[in-house]
Task: inverse folding
C-alpha cells in the first residue's frame, strides 16, 4: 500500500513554521484543510469544536497546547509554575471524558516541576519535546494494537464499528480501525459496517473517509440499524475504541457504544474494545464515576445548518456512554488481549506500566 495512505499525520509540530499543524476534521470529507495553530486559545477552540478529536489525539494535542501557552513566558521560576498551572487548567476544561488529555497534563506538570533545577527556557524545550514524544508513543502503540487485534480475528470477518478510531483519532493506523486495516492486509475482512455516529457523524464523515483511502469494503448504516444487522446475521463482531477504561474494565466511548454492546450480547456476537494503555484510568474504580461530556443543544436540534426541531426544545446530548465490563468480550491494547476484563485482569495488564509514562526526563 502507498506509504502516504498509511502515514497520515493529522497532528504534528512544524519546526520551520514554529507552530502546530492539524488536519481540520470538521471539514472532512468535503475538503482537506490544514490549520496552523499558534496560540493556546486556537488550540482550545480546535479541541472544543472537534477540529481535533479522538482520545489519543487529544493527549498529543494537549501537550503541544501546554507548550503553545507557555512559550512566550518571560518571568521568573515561581511565576512559571503558576503560569503552567493556569494553562493546564484551561486545557483540562476543554473536554472532560478522554483520559489521555489529563494524563498528558499530569506529565506536563511533572516536567514543569523541574524548573526548580533547570532554567525556564530549558523546561519550555522539554515541554515541546513531550508533545513529540507522546506522538511517537501513540504511533507505536497503534501499530502494536493493530497487530494484536488482527491476531484474534478470523477469515471472512464482518465487522460493525462505531465513531472514528483511525489515524484521525489516534495517529499511526488508529486503534479499532487499525485492527481492521491490519486484518484487511491479512485477507481476513469481508466487510465493515460503519455506524454514522450521531450527532456529529464521525463514522459517516471520518471512518468512511479513512476506509475509502485504504480501499477496505464497507457500508454506512444509521446507528439504529446496527442491532438489525446483527439480527440478520450480517456481522460477526463489534469493534470499537475507548475514551477511558477504568479499573473494573468499564469503558467510556462515543454515545451509542453501550447500545451496541447490549445488542451484541443479545446476538452472541463478540464485543471488542481496542485502546492504548494510555486510555486506562486506574484512579477510578467503576464507569459510573467517569465524567461524561454533555454538548450543546444545537448539535441535535440542527442538521446541516438547518433547524430540525421546534424552537426551544429541551435536549440531553451526552457525547459518551459507559459500557459495563460484563458486556465486553475482550480489550485489545499494545501489550496484548484482556479477555473478559475485570479488575484483577486490568490490574495485571497495566501494572508497572504507568510509571514509565511518567518518566519526565525524556
Ligand atoms: O467526540 P470524539 O470524536 O472525540 O469521540 C471519539 C471516540 O469516541 C473514539 O471512539 C475514542 O476516542 C477512541 S479513538 C481511538
Result:
Amino acid at each position: 500500500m502507498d506509504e502516504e495512505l498509511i502515514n497520515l499525520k493529522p497532528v504534528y509540530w512544524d519546526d520551520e513554521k514554529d507552530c502546530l499543524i492539524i488536519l481540520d476534521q470538521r471539514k472532512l470529507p468535503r475538503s482537506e484543510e490544514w490549520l496552523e495553530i499558534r496560540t493556546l486559545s486556537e488550540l482550545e477552540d480546535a479541541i472544543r469544536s472537534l477540529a481535533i478529536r479522538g482520545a489519543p489525539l487529544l493527549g498529543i494535542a494537549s501537550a503541544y497546547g501546554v507548550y503553545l501557552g507557555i512559550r512566550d513566558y518571560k518571568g521568573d521560576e515561581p511565576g512559571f509554575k503558576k503560569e503552567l498551572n493556569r494553562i493546564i487548567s484551561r486545557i483540562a476544561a476543554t473536554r472532560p471524558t478522554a483520559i489521555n488529555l489529563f494524563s498528558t497534563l499530569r506529565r506536563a506538570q511533572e516536567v514543569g516541576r523541574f524548573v526548580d533545577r533547570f532554567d525556564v527556557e530549558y523546561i519550555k524545550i522539554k515541554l515541546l519535546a513531550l508533545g513529540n514524544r507522546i506522538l511517537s508513543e501513540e504511533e507505536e502503540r497503534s501499530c502494536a494494537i493493530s497487530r494484536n487485534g488482527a491476531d484474534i480475528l478470523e477469515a471472512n470477518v464482518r465487522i460493525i464499528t462505531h465513531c472514528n478510531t483511525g489515524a484521525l483519532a489516534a495517529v499511526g493506523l488508529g486503534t479499532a480501525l487499525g485492527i481492521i486495516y491490519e486484518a484487511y492486509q491479512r485477507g481476513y475482512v469481508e466487510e465493515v459496517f460503519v455506524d454514522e455516529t450521531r450527532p456529529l457523524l464521525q463514522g459517516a464523515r471520518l471512518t468512511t473517509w479513512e476506509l475509502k483511502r485504504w480501499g477496505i469494503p464497507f457500508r454506512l448504516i444509521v446507528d439504529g440499524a446496527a442491532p438489525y444487522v446483527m439480527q440478520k446475521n450480517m456481522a460477526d463482531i463489534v469493534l470499537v475504541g475507548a475514551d477511558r477504561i477504568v479499573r473494573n474494565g468499564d469503558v467510556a466511548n462515543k454515545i451509542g457504544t453501550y447500545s451496541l454492546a447490549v445488542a451484541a450480547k443479545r446476538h452472541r456476537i463478540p464485543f471488542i474494545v481496542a485502546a492504548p494503555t494510555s486510555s486506562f484510568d486506574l484512579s477510578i474504580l467503576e464507569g459510573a464515576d467517569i465524567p461524561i461530556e454533555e454538548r450543546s443543544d444545537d448539535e441535535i436540534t440542527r442538521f446541516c445548518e438547518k433547524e430540525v426541531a421546534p424552537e426551544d426544545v429541551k435536549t440531553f446530548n451526552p457525547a459518551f456512554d459507559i459500557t459495563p465490563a460484563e458486556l465486553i468480550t475482550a480489550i485489545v491494547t499494545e501489550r496484548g488481549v484482556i479477555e473478559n476484563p475485570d479488575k484483577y485482569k486490568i490490574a495485571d495488564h497495566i501494572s508497572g506500566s504507568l510509571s514509565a509514562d511518567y518518566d519526565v526526563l525524556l
About this structure: The two ends are 33 Å apart (CA to CA). Residues 50, 53-56, 98, 163, 165, 169-170, 174-175, 202, 241-243, 253-254, 319 surround MRU (CB under 6 Å).
